[in-house]
Structure formats: C-alpha cells, structure tokens
Design a protein that fits this description.
Strand order of the largest sheet: 6-7-8-3-9-10
Number of strands: 14
Shape: globular
Strand content: 25-35%
Radius of gyration: 23 Å
Structural class: alpha/beta
Length: 300
Amino acid sequence: MLKVENVTKYYGSNLAVDNLSFEVKSGEIFGLLGVNGAGKTTTFRMIIGLLDKSSGNITLNGKPINYDVTDEIGFLTEERSLLTKLTVQEQVIYYGILKGMKEKDILEKLDIWLKRFNISEYKTRKIKELSKGNQQKVQFITAIINEPKLLILDEPFSGLDPINVQLFMDVIVELKKKGTSIIFSSHRMEHVEMFCEKLVVLVHGKSVLAGELKQIKKDYRKKNIHIVAEEVDLKKLSKVNGVVDVINNETEIIVKLASDENINDVFEFIKHCKEVTKFVVEDATLNEIFLDKVGVLYEN
C-alpha cells in the first residue's frame, strides 16, 4: 500500500503541492487528476524519490521511499524518457539493471513482453527508428519489467491507436489482479472512468475533489436523460423545470438536468410525446464533473 500523508512541496516561495493525502491499496487503480501545472508531476517525483518533500510522509508498504524501495516502483512518464540511440534490448536492460535485476532475468521477461506487444522484430532496432506508438510500448515495458508493487502511469495511452489502447488496458487490469498498486493519470476522463475506483483531483497543488468514483458521481446531483421519441417540441422541453440544456443529435435527445429532483418533470413532459422508445437517466460523466468542479477554481 502507498500512503501519502499531509505532503507539502515548495519551490522557493512557490507552493506546488498543498497538504496532500491519499492511499492506494494493493490491487487498486487510483486516479490522480488535474489540469496542467496542478502538481501531479511534482507528486509523482516525490513518490519515486526524485524530489524531497517540504513536509509530510510517503511510505510504500510501511517503508519510507528510498533507493531500496524505488526498486519496487515502475513509472511511465508523460514525456518520453527513452535513450533514442540505444536498441530496444539495450534500453530495457539499462532500466532493468537500475532496478536491481539480473541481465538474464531481464532478457527472459523482455522476450515475453515484446511478443505480448507485437514488437518482437524490433528487439535489436534503435529506439529512434520506432514509431511513437511502438516507443510508448517500449517505455511501458521498461516500467513493468521489474514487476513493480507500485506502478505510476502518466498518460499511458499517448500515441496509441484504439487496438493498442485496448492491449495496454488488458495488461493494466492483469497487473491490478496480481496485486499491483496503480496510480493512473490522464486528461481523458473516459479512460479514468474505465479504471479508477478512487481518485483525487488537484487544483494549484490542493485536493479539491476526492473519494470513490461511484460515490462522487452519486453525490453530484446533475443528471443526463437520454430520450428517443417522435415529435418532441425542443423549445418547450428546454423550459421544463430544472432543464439546463437540450442536445438534439441524429440518434437521440440528451437533456441535462440541474438536479435529480427534476427527473419526474421531464418524464411528465415526454410521456405525452409520440412513440417514446427510450428514457434513460444517467449520472453526469466524470468529464462534466471535472469541468464543473475544477473550471471555476482553476480560473481563480
């Protein structure tokens, strides 16, 4: 288990992370979110021991983060951290040895992962000769080659097509099932919703939204209603009590509500329309919640 307790970080007089606390249990995928400059990267660097904290505690399975513990951590950074003049094999050996692995074990695991990611033929090719997507695969392999107890994934799907995104997702879920603690960060909220049981949202280094994703969505009173019906008067629908917006696309009408208290008002209106074949109430998406909760705070 990773524990971040009351962690603060200053760069001179600039407060980058403000009294941050969260836990990531074994076999749990935790979302650490925020706009650019919110303090995510600083937090990651403190967790892996690249930056010292100004105050607070960070422990992995009860141990303070030091060079012994960092051997149990994998980190896929948002920025490319590959040495482009090395071959794929040389690059993975380099990172594996830094994690205290033996070269024989590295090569055995490398062959398994290269086959899994369909890039076995690139084993002796230089990193600079690979596409961005294949470089991302290599970077992911370097992050998991040591079978980490804690894995930090910062924008892991960068440069990947949908097929390879699914491939990464499958591996991430497998690692979770094996007990790896995973911190997942992405600007794509739909990806966060797929994975994360719990999350923290940072604004200017401070947690502004935290908890279990299901509970966060439940507590957020705004709802979306998906409707399929004939002869719906959209102008009248938009004036129904509690309706914030009405979106009419090719397949359905989406009604955005200010509160779940107004669901019945919309239902009473729609039931008088012709051929109603769909009336589905859904929680707001995480993207909507993020924009609503974070937008105003970030601007201020």
